[in-house]
Structure formats: structure tokens, C-alpha cells
Amino acid sequence: MLAAYAQYWRINLLTMLEYRANFLMWFAFTIVYHGVALAALYVTMQQFPSMNGWDVRQMFFLYALWMCGHELHNALFFSVVSVPEFVREGRFDRFLVRPLDTLFQVITVPQMTVPDGLVLAIVTLCFATAAAHVHVDLFFLAFVPLVALGGALIDLGISLVVATISFWFVRVDTLRWVIMSLEQDFTRYPISIYQRGVRVVLAFVFPFAFMNYFPATFLLHKTETGLHLSPAVGLLTPVVGIVWLIVSYGFWQFGLRHYQGTGS
To answer: What pLDDT does 263 receive?
Structure first.
């Protein structure tokens, strides 16, 4: 599997070198996408200088922390979101007759995958850390990569659940769009500004708050006012990511046992 994974990244690199213009355009789009999001956040914070005690610099750090986990997921696991398309077109069946793990095959579908967004996320986090005056020490340097990994696994787990649902319903575009909107729109702000029901969903149903809000609360030495939990709950992000992956992978295996194809 390691050899196959190495070949997968080799193909990605060769594809990038062959289609350089496409890579540059995609990288430019990534910059514009996150730039617009940060600009909108800045404009909002000009109207509301503080949101439940969070200022614009701390919100910048909040976004950058989420960005690292999300872009790590996109660099390593983004092809999982294509499973519903594979199912609809009858291309998923070929994964079932090969000797390697089905999910591993999905993750390593040859495509132009480059970690441009992840590089941008790391640069953004460096600026945000300095802007928010976050104390950087050995703990910070060890913990933040674990937060990014935990966030990536949370994203993967949720993508895997949606992908598995497509085994029965085939078209799950709306569900995917709703979850993406929930993540991208609601994680830009501290969950403490939302109604309690939304806070519970973001913390315990789709635990996006563990991608940035809880870890940022801990690193910024703030009081957690959303659900009145200990700020130390932010240390659990890697654990939440692993648990989500285990549960979603179990659901994936259950779905595989009941998968019947689309008749294509």
C-alpha cells in the first residue's frame, strides 16, 4: 500500500508538471477563495469590533486554524467527495474487485492533487499567529499539527458518511452542499454567537468546532462561553478526529456490504 501511495503522488507530480497553467490557475483560485472569505470577515468585524470577546485578530487566527485542517483534508483525502459521482456513473464497482482496501483505492484515484492550499494555509497561520500574539513554544509547535490532522480526519469522517449514504440514495448533492455550507460559513465565527442548538450541532453532531474554536480558545487563553466547557477540551481535537474516522469507516464497511450498484 505504501508503494502504491508513493506512485499515486508521483502521478500527481507528473500531472502538475504537464499542466502547469492549470495548476497556477487553481492556486490563484485558492488564494482568491480564502482571500474573499478573510476580506468578508474583516468587513464584518469593522461593523462589530468584538464578537463575544473575540476581536478581528483572534478571528483571523480562528479562520487560519480551520484552514489548516480543511486544506490538509483536501490535499490527502479530497477524492472521497467524488464517491457519489463514481456510484452514479458505475465506476465505483471496479474498486470492489481489486485486492487493495476500497477506501485506500478511492483516496488514491489518479488526479491532479497538489498541496497548494495547505502551503497557503500554513503561511496564513503564521501571519495569524503573529497578529493574534499567540505564544509560540514547543507545545504550540507540536500541538498545532495535531489540531490540523484532527481537523482533516473530522472532515474525512464527515465526507465518508456522505459518500456511504450515496450507496443507497445515489444523489446526495444537496446533503453535501448543506454540510459544506455549515462548515465553511459557521466555522468563521466563534460558536458562542449562535443559538444553543447550533452550538450543540457544531460541537457534537458535526464537530467542526473542534477544528478551530475549541483549540483556539485554549491557545488564546480565553474562557469557553459557547457551551461553558473547560478550554482544555480543545486538546481533544486529535482524539475527536480519530473517533470520527473509526465510526465513519465502520459505517463505510456496513455500506459496502449492502452496496448493490446502480445497474450501469
So the answer is: 56
> Residue 255: which H helix or E strand, with range?
helix 237-258
With CA atoms as reference, report the closest residue to 70 among 181, 143, 127, 152. 152
Name the pLDDT band for 181 (thresholds 50, 70, 90).
Answer: confident
**Model confidence at 116: pLDDT above 90:** no
* Residue 264 predicted with pLDDT over 60: no
**Residue 92 buriedness (CB in 10 A; 0-12 / 13-18 / 19+):** buried
User: What confidence category does residue 254 fall into, taking pLDDT thresholds of 50, 70 and 90?
Assistant: very high
Whole-angstrom distance, CA of residue 217 vs CA of residue 58: 9
Non-local CB neighbours of 216 within 8 Å, separated by 6+ positions: 58, 61, 62, 65, 222, 234
Contacts 24+ apart (CB under 8 A), 17-26: 19/112, 22/112, 23/112, 23/114, 23/116, 26/112, 26/114, 26/116
Distance CA 236, CA 223 (A): 16
12-29 mean pLDDT: 76
Residue bearing cell 457534537: 204
> What's the rounded Cα separation, in Å, for the pair 245 and 254?
14
The one-character DSSP state at 134 is P
N- to C-terminal Cα distance for the chain?
29
Cα-trace Rg, the chain: 19
Residue 235 has pLDDT above 80, yes or no: yes
